[in-house]
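Quick one, tokens below:
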């Protein structure tokens, strides 16, 4: 078995009695937030959240901010170009996440675990 197949079995499931059966189940939630030229809550605070990814499904830049402060084109944590993908750093996964787009089209596609 090659490493890719082994990792898939480890993280995506394998019949009981294998190493994958020992790993805790991970529940993911996918959401979509429509682009806006205004501070927009992408995710609220969640102390139990284990990880977050954001895909900017827009032709405009999306400014992303961690925490409760409002986001703008001059006050943000990360800048996502059109079609860009962000893995939120571990230390910020439980924080609120805000977005602000340079133009109104598309959405943020968010996966949280």
């Amino acid at each position: 078995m090659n490493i890719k197949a082994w990792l898939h079995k480890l993280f995506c499931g394998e019949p009981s009695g294998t190493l994958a059966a020992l790993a805790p189940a991970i529940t993911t939630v996918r959401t979509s937030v429509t682009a806006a030229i205004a501070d927009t809550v992408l995710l609220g605070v969640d102390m139990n959240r284990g990880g977050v990814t954001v895909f900017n499904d827009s032709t405009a830049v999306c400014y992303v901010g961690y925490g409760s402060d409002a986001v703008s084109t001059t006050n943000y944590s990360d800048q996502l170009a059109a079609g860009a993908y962000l893995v939120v750093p571990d230390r910020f996964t439980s924080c609120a996440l805000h977005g602000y787009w340079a133009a109104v089209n598309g959405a943020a596609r968010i996966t949280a675990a």
